[in-house]
Specification:
By secondary structure, the chain is an alpha/beta fold. The chain has a single domain (about 1-50, about 75-210), classed as Rossmann fold. It is built from six helices and twelve strands. The strands form three sheets. Strands 1, 4, 5, 6, 7, 8, 9 and 10 form an eight-stranded mixed β-sheet that branches. Strand 5 (about 95-105) and strand 6 (about 115-120) form a beta hairpin. The longest helix has 20 residues, at about 30-45.
Length: about 220
Amino acid sequence: MIHDISIQSSVFNRFMSEIRDVDIQKDPMRFRMNMERIAEILGYELSKKLTAKAMETQTPLGLSQTMVPGESPVLATILRAGLSMHNGLLRMFDRADSAFISAYRKHTTAEEFDIHVEYLAAPNLDGRTWIISDPMLATGSSMLAVYKALRKMGNPTKIHIVSAIATPDALELIKAHFPTNTEIWVGAIDKELTAQSYIVPGLGDAGDLAYGVKL
């Protein structure tokens, strides 16, 4: 199931507009803050799909009963671009465990590349709900490589993928290779993917914009 939050008009779309804006992008602190806001809202939306339980709270005048999420997910973040989204998700799921995975493109030509996963630190993943975040889903290859690496450490009961911008190509790849109990939460779906696998209009390199241009 794919949830495109941009379909409805909301303040969320203002944050999406700002991460794309070439002038606002010049302020890395604001870029990171907007990515965190986007992740918070996507996290709030997906929290409605988590299993629920009743919680009693003692107030000064009596007992209040509230329905709250009944599980603590694992936040799996793809380094380094996903760190700003991780911070936003962690504010929504402040009791969640965290996993960190490095994944990057290793180019053989200007248009061809392999995805390399070189670092993985994770808590117990078996029988848990996974929330995997990455700002950009261009081809979906990085997300698939990360999923395969995580699967070696456990079997999820549910997967939620959180991304600011995705392409139809990436969504099709995920639907073809991920389990049927996977849900995707995106801020926008951009139709075009260049020969070098960059999203158009996209926003550029999320990692460079957030943390500086890498060598």
